[in-house]
Amino acid sequence: MTPEERLGQSFQALLPFLLSNVSLVVGLALLLLLFAARAASADRDFRRDLRGAFRFLSAFLIFRLGAWVVPATAPDSLKKIVQVAWMLTFTFGVIRAGVALTLQVIRLRSPVATPKILRDVIDFALYGLAAVPILQSQLNLDLGGLLATSAVLSVVIGLALQETLGNLFAGLSLQLERPYQVGDFIRIGEHTGRVVQIGWRGTRIITFRRESVTLPNSLVAKEVVRNFSFAYEPIGVDIYLRLSYDTPPNHVKAVVLDVMKEIPTILQDPAPQCRTWAFDDSSICYQIRYWVADFAHADNTMEALYTRLWYRLRRENIEIPYPQRVVHARTETLDKAEVSSDTVLDQLRAVDLFSMLSPDELDQLRRELVARRFGLGERIIEEGEEGRTFYLLASGEVSVRTGKNQAEVTRLKRGSYFGEMSLLTGEPRAATVVAVQDSVLLELDRPAFARMFVAHPGLARQLSALLAQRRTQLRAVAEASGGSEDPAPEAGRILGRLRQIFGLSQD
User: Do 450 and 502 meet the contact criterion of CB atoms below 8 Å apart?
Assistant: First the structure.
């Protein structure tokens, strides 16, 4: 017995059910269940599949009820067409509802979306298998003979739809191999984006510029496909940086790795890498590899890394050289063009710590300052770390934060200074300072203060009293004590620390 004969026998067994009123009751009940399921579900694909089944069953009820109102005197052909119509719509509605339910169960077991082309192929294949016995039994059609007599027409249609059919079969082959699926980030040729649909004709992606690009499946089947979401593992990104031969590679790698720890979208597991990659004509090439959890963050992460590296490399005096073939000496200083000399002198005069210094001494202090540029979001000092530097804010704005939650205490602007307590007493940093704008800070180290203490023996005692008064005021504000605490004991303790650190004699 051929498969067609077995299929015909199966339909003959179901024919009494279709012709009876039971099919009408079943169709109405199924229609109500689909309506309730569609209203309760939030799955967009499931709702779309149920909408198709709902339409088929609605058409079935119309044709079924229409068969009752057809006059008895109507032509038999009209009655037969109406009967075939409600049989087909009922069968198609049941098939569509069954496929929708099956695909929904698959989606619940797997987060992968079912491609539209796969749903369509399943639906149309089942529609065809169900329609053949209905048409043969009810309309006495010889479909095999009809197909045999239309061979020439089939060839003509096949040639006319050659490209469309090529896209169709290419789409089917892509579904079998599954190099990507809906939701993946892929790159095909010059196009990069997230897959939103795999259809009959092509694959649709949304690019980073929110463009919708449809690529023909036949073209995709011939191109190299790069999938950045394979198995939803972290994706690695490689960039290359060329820096001066004057800086030791190990120092460069330490700086780059430290910068990558500050960018939250760069994963620390797998650990970022910085490798010495090549010796070029005028620079050393470094390969930087880092991982992101989602390729959608790759461009923004790369931008943040390049921005942070520029500021950090400038502060570390690591040169990004121009292409060159002639080696020449360079006499530039780090702080050139950052802040003018007059501006620095004006700001030094306004600092109460340096109020007793003469103009010549202030100018000497100005020459010892080093300009450091920090970018938005960079940490300048870290709470709890050792502090050996004093900072004067030449431009920009910084945020002072403290505590486990790093709550903001205050903001400092141009002319403010910080870091003096740790530098002078050796105590750990009491707060974290973060740049909230691009900022230029003038840095002064501990030896500069040592020279001032030698030139001015009474300076240590004055600074101790000033620092003690400032600390007492801060404590009074924090404890709402009205500033009644005596700063003298604190001043003595600070003076003792100054003498110990800077080797000062008793005066």
Answer: yes
